[in-house]
Amino acid sequence: MRLVIVGGVAGGMSAAARARRLDETAEIIVLDRGEHVSFANCGLPYYVGGEITDPGALLVQTPERLRSSLNLDVRTRHVMIGIDTDVRELTVRTPVGVEQIGYDALVLSPGAAAVRPDVPGIDSPRVRTLRTVDDALALRGRVTGGAARAIVIGAGFIGVEAAEALAQQGIATTLVQRSAQVLPPLEAEHAWPVTRELQRLGIDVRTGTTVQRIEPGMDEDTLTLSDGTTITAGLIVLAAGVRPDTEVFEQAGITCENGAIVTDEHGRTSAPRVWAVGDATVSTDPITGARRPVTLAGPANRAGRLIADDILRPETARPLPRPLGTAIIRVGDLTAALTGANRGELDHAGIPAHTLHLHPNQHAGYFPGAAQVHLTVHVHAGDGRILGAQAHGTDGVDKRIDVLATAIRAGMRVDDLIDLDLAYAPPYGQAKDPINLAGMLGENVLTGTLALWDARDLEGVRERSLILDVRTDAEVATGVLPGALHMPHIELRDRLDEVRDAAAGRPVRVMCASGVRSAIAHRVLAQSGFDSASLSGGVLTLRAALGPDADTVLVAPGVMQHA
Amino acid sequence: MRLVIVGGVAGGMSAAARARRLDETAEIIVLDRGEHVSFANCGLPYYVGGEITDPGALLVQTPERLRSSLNLDVRTRHVMIGIDTDVRELTVRTPVGVEQIGYDALVLSPGAAAVRPDVPGIDSPRVRTLRTVDDALALRGRVTGGAARAIVIGAGFIGVEAAEALAQQGIATTLVQRSAQVLPPLEAEHAWPVTRELQRLGIDVRTGTTVQRIEPGMDEDTLTLSDGTTITAGLIVLAAGVRPDTEVFEQAGITCENGAIVTDEHGRTSAPRVWAVGDATVSTDPITGARRPVTLAGPANRAGRLIADDILRPETARPLPRPLGTAIIRVGDLTAALTGANRGELDHAGIPAHTLHLHPNQHAGYFPGAAQVHLTVHVHAGDGRILGAQAHGTDGVDKRIDVLATAIRAGMRVDDLIDLDLAYAPPYGQAKDPINLAGMLGENVLTGTLALWDARDLEGVRERSLILDVRTDAEVATGVLPGALHMPHIELRDRLDEVRDAAAGRPVRVMCASGVRSAIAHRVLAQSGFDSASLSGGVLTLRAALGPDADTVLVAPGVMQHA
Q1: How far is residue B524 from each of residues A309, A312, B531, measured CA to CA in Å?
Q2: Measured between CA atoms, how close is B42 to chain A, in angstroms?
Q3: Could you say which of B181, B209, B240 is where a domain stops?
Q4: Which chain A residue lies closest to B322 (C-alpha atoms)?
Q5: Chain A: nearest CA to B548, how far in angstroms?
Q6: Looking at residue B282, which CATH number applies to its domain?
Q7: pTM
């Protein structure tokens, strides 16, 4: 049995290793177009930034070690240029010529290639992607070589990591992003804090902007942006996304869709005895049903293993899970993470959802180092299932997103989160963990005990409602919505008549700092017959969602009197 | 509607707060025997140790704030001394006399009292429990007053936290524990590393030892231990466990079992309109079915909320979940945590289980700060469900235990862990997270792809098998099992005949450092017809499970030649 694997990183190498564990006798050949296999692709930005100091550490495995430990035949600098699925044979360009390699089973793990925007000058030698060990070595060389200015094109995960890495090395760094915010999969209320953190690190963040032209210069290139400004930089990182290169597969008659390989639930392509895995394949979103490639290392690694099972013991192989797209990024002191669907994807798919916002401490408030986890959870408005979640904060973010990713995979309803027995001691959590609190909040919304209003609907709410601000005097001094009625929540029970007069028949929309006191106030109002709702996540979420506009929307309290 | 709640901490106060949110009109009275309500009982050791500096921070709420925010009538120093469930009336001793208080609904949240061993001298004024704010203030006073020597009686969670707190303040501290290890719910392979960490902190740990006698002295008491030694100490913390004080409830005819109040799935006692919550109630273990009180803040807080639901909107109230007993402790630089059943509980319940041990890094190995998470997972040998898990390490332990607690609650099988989309970037995890790896290991065991042998069975294995040590030369220099055959795993494929000769028909039991290479070796051997198995968790688990005996069992490699 000869198993040939094209692509020796992530999914491909996982398939190879698993195949050997299952079958000592198989011949296993791994072909890779690059110099290295099984390298730490997710570690490259940290090497550029000097946080990982040993380039050898990026090489998780070498062909020699894979040979001695797992008896794998690993061939680097081998580029597959053709497949004949009828005779089961590959055409491969090697360092010494072109050769044919037959297979009994074939795993395609070719990855994806960087998108190169159609911009004059994009082929400047100062423009470099960050996809391979060679890329990282070259960029690191320019960093230590004294580059003064850098520009990163694209503020996705790799672009943001690259920008931070360069800025941390003292390089004046500009981050250019076509869309309106960095990290497009994030909700606005999480993306804006990331932008602020990038700015704190000294990075010039230009969203809603594209590069129009790159002109070579003596020491630096000059980039002209869509806003008309120009920037010079000696180091340009191209991180505008990736796209599978499926031409050779399509020529071989393997079914593709939107430029990615279509596979069944076992990773099988349309061709017999040909499987595919990773960035080049289409996945179905388990929440929205959307079909798109998921370019993440985790799902690829795990799918590679399952594909080896399907090749070597098909009768018991489990199906590949539909990836949730859980992702995480460290930006300065912040962590931002997401799992499942975001609001835009839910809206696009027409899935009715409640969106919860909360800001609990990551551990007991009385224990040193307490810090808020800013959490968004989307809940199916019908059956209460958790559809997606996002969070940012300085500590405890990864844990909560992982618990929520587990809960989503388990098909849990939001109120199931109440019952989770999470590990509590003061340095680690709260007796009511942020996850439990999200469950309680969600249950209150599903049962109608709590009605929420959303920062996204601010304009309409201001037009039609009395906004009741139940924060303390000291808190409102930091900025208020003009026209809001201010009444600390502890006074509400005694001042309901004032609220009734001010509302004059309009609904009352309550707000506080984080949504806790406004929820209490809502209960008082609702039980007194008011049409009431509580601002989801309070001013903390409102400010983050408004982003740079927050300081014009929330004004000095004196203005409130004149509204 | 008058709701009376007896006990204003954790479950009681959660019930009170929830009740108010549901019902503005109810009269809600909270009685507490102590000076303070809703205090940070889990924070007390950290105040004693000076990590929490402001005693005010321990008071999460005050009666005044609870009145103004939630309109609760909180009465401290009120001790319930009788219940008449027929006329629905309590007899209460107050600071000014005895009074009767009627109720429409009653919630009992009395907590538990410290166990006081029947030891001469236990009533010495130098002996103090650590259950209340007053206890913490008194102990802190003695710490800052210059106590030189301390003894902590009982190495459960509070005892260990107290011992660390005292040692960190420079006090010579002895920790005495009746059973053979600290933190009895932990498996030996997790308890021993905790002991070593306590020793590193300078604590004199005496397990398998009890206090026989306490004799008062001028500046210090003298304690005589069961091993005949004596210790003097100016400060003695009694942390030998807790027991509910149910006498008053039993007198009132409320059904109790093994000294704790019996409730149904909604927290209802045997008496009409009387509910109970927290340390004084019996819970059923969801894994083993064992019935015992669970003295943890988290389940109590959440159960209190559900009880308020059952009182005020019984038609939609959800049942109380059966608590898994998830717990966590910080000891020096270590974290140790557990969820679900441990091995002893599974054995006692007669539940057949596989036990997995693994030691993956908490994040990418090439990223700075990589550290192992030492993980034990119990899996049902029949249906593959996850039954329990424990872990220790310096980072990432709480996250993995929380994910596993969520998976157990969801009823997941161990192989479902493979599919979890956990958040991966190099600072946070691995493309194959420790949790995914546990799933892969478990699947391999369930399908027979991997056979394990356990450190607990070392003696029998040594008698009947060839032990094959596949570590490198450098590794075996740190200690080997006499009689083992040493052969680095990468040489195994070429030296199978040597193994066959040495085995002479016996089974081959493979071992390496952590269980990864021995699993690869097992696959090679099994596919070559050997009766083979891999040491679960390798030498890392073996050493931890052997504890102080490890250095006599694993000896200098020269000895191997003579075996």
Answers
A1: 17, 16, 11
A2: 7
A3: B240
A4: A419
A5: 28
A6: 3.50.50.60
A7: 0.97
